[in-house]
Specification:
Strand content: over 45%
Radius of gyration: 21 Å
Number of domains: 1
Order of helices and strands: HHEEEEEEEEEE
């Protein structure tokens, strides 16, 4: 009799653990497309001679940036795809050329108690250009706001830019399992 009660109690605890990600799945699982990105001050990233605080106007391909959140019963992953800047050539040329490639890493994450922020568990061996955002706010329905720091070449040389970007949900990843 004691063994049966113990087994049933164990089953209940296991069931709770299996379903703990269901709320996260229902609220977060999916792909989010960028709708805005602003720097902490105006920058000339595209080297056209004019500065803009709106980085969507300055960073080629940034309109293709996205966040993918996958939530399963035993796993939660976060991936920010960002237009990473690569120099095509260096030298004494006054306007070097850059390539922008959509890149990002997949990291696990946790959600705070109030279900307002995501905390990404950064991999130790992550290249610094793929550092996760400093802040990931999920308090608005179907929107994610992030704050990240990026070192980006501008007309004034490399600068550390504080970026605030907003993403809106574009679709769901799939089935909760």
């Amino acid at each position: 009799m004691v063994a049966i009660i113990f087994l049933c109690t164990s089953c209940e605890k296991e069931k709770i653990n299996i379903d703990e990600n269901l709320e996260a799945f229902e609220k977060l699982d999916g792909t989010y497309k960028i709708v805005s990105a602003f720097g902490d001050k105006p920058y000339d990233v595209n080297l056209d001679g004019s500065t803009d605080i709106n980085l969507m106007n300055e960073i080629p391909n940034l309109a293709n940036s996205s966040i993918d959140i996958v939530v399963k019963k035993n796993l939660k992953t976060f991936r920010l795809l960002w237009a990473e800047q690569y120099i095509l050539f260096k030298g004494d040329i006054p306007t070097p050329q850059y390539s922008y490639i959509m890149q990002g890493e997949i990291d696990r994450f946790e959600i705070d108690q109030n279900f307002e922020r995501i905390h990404v568990q950064k991999s130790i061996d992550t290249d610094s250009r793929f550092n996760p955002p400093n802040l990931i706010d999920i308090s608005a329905k179907d929107k994610i706001s992030i704050e990240l720091l990026k070192t980006i070449a501008t007309s004034k040389g490399e600068q550390l830019i504080k970026i605030n970007a907003t993403y809106e949900k574009a679709g769901s990843q799939g089935v909760y399992n």
